[in-house]
Amino acid sequence: MKYIVVGLGNFGLSLAEKLTKLGNEVIGIDNSIAKVEAVKEKISYAICLDATDEFAMSGLPWKDTDIVIIAIGEDTGANIMATAMVKKLHPNRIISRAITPIHETILEAMNVETIIHPEDESAERWAKKLSLKGMVDSFELSMNFSIAEISIPDKLVGKTIEEVGFRNNYNLVCVTIIKKIADKNLFGKVKRINQIQGVVTTDTVLEAADILVIYGDNEDIKKFIKSN
Fold it and tell me: What's the number of CA atoms in the CB half-sphere (13 Å) around residue 74?
């Protein structure tokens, strides 16, 4: 996949490097030439430009980019301006970093669907989430085993837990299901929040908007995602 990472501070730099190591094409941009020089040998492309300058930003390959990550953290204003700029230029998936609750609320009002808090989440965890299509989130219990949140694959919609056969067919355990329910933020804007459904049973039916929470070996989780 192809990514643009805006802001090469500690988090942005670490995320760009890890995404590159996972085999992705990454363009990193920052207005500091020192940061760009430091990373240019570690990622696909490193460019020095001002992310709040529409003319400069318009020259990037937006049509060929799958996901844009706004990783600016030191300057909330620059983060918001860069996010607005990217939304104008890149209609596909945008991920933006939030520093404070009010910052997050502003990003929600801008219809940014995915907001991250790198102070609480590792770049490595996000690199894995972004690289595996269908992976919503994951929590490593050890080097080999994880609990993962995965979007319901289309071909499994309407099937029961028993029909899917997580244990027999995939060597995985289905822990629970998360459903998205509507809620409103301070601006009255509707957003989706997670509601855990409790322990699943063999006759639990998988629905299109559900998120599976599964446990197992990392390799088995990857095989499940790729096979579906």
Answer: 10
Query: In angstroms, rounded to a whole number, what is the distance separating the alpha carbons of residues 221 and 153?
Result: 13
C-beta separation of 95 from 69 below 8 A: yes
170-197 confidence digits (pLDDT tens): 999 888 888 777 666 555 666 656 667 7
Q: Which residues contact 21 (CB under 8 A, 6 or more apart)?
A: none
Please tell me the total number of residues recorded for the chain in this structure: 228
Residues ≥6 apart with Cβ < 8 Å to 221: 138, 146, 148, 150, 172, 214
How many Å apart are CA 109 and CA 148, to the nearest integer?
A: 28
Residue-range domains of the chain with CATH: 2-130 (3.40.50.720), 134-227 (3.30.70.1450)
pTM of the entire predicted model: 0.59
